[in-house]
Amino acid sequence: MPVTNVTPDLDQLTLTIDAEFAAPVERIWQVYADPRQLEKVWGPPGYPATVVDHDFTAGGRVTYFMTGPEGEKFAGYWDITGVDEPNGFTFDDGFADADFNPNPDLPVSKNGFTFTAGGAGTKARYVSTYASAEALQQVLDMGVVEGSTAAINQIDDLVA
Fold this sequence. Notes:
Belongs to the AHA1 family. Residues 22-159 form the Activator of Hsp90 ATPase homologue 1/2-like C-terminal domain. There is one protein chain. The chain is of the alpha+beta class. It has one domain (3-159): START domain (Alpha-D-Glucose-1,6-Bisphosphate, Chain A, domain 4). The chain is 22% helix and 42% strand. It contains 5 helices and 8 strands. It has helices spanning 25-33, 35-38, 133-141, 144-152, 155-159, and strands spanning 3-9, 14-21, 49-54, 61-67, 73-84, 88-96, 109-118, 121-129. An 8-stranded antiparallel sheet has the order 1-2-8-7-6-5-4-3. The relative contact order is 0.25. The mean pLDDT is 96.
């Protein structure tokens, strides 16, 4: 399993997930830079993602929805704030309505995904920062640790 550590920190308002992949940094970068590959790993098993728009540049936006086992759809967006190919990127991640308008009732997180050479291939660190402990607790209660871990663990099969 690629995920090696998960640390929710209500004092620092962060959720940090560390993972290791048996593939070079450039290959892990491609998973996020290519919307068709991203669809295979964004969302836990049973909730496949469909990427609708994918402007993977600073100032760009990625929109997507996940489809649940009963056909229900869950939309979200990334507002890309920085790109450092192939070492990582930063973005604001939010929930959205069916038309990809931000849902103000659910938290938005600031995220930094970094990829460095190490171990058998790539060490990845996923850091999400929330505006408040309540916002972080809300996504923890929604199952973000389990969902993110299951999603990230799909990457090894994709890059094998």
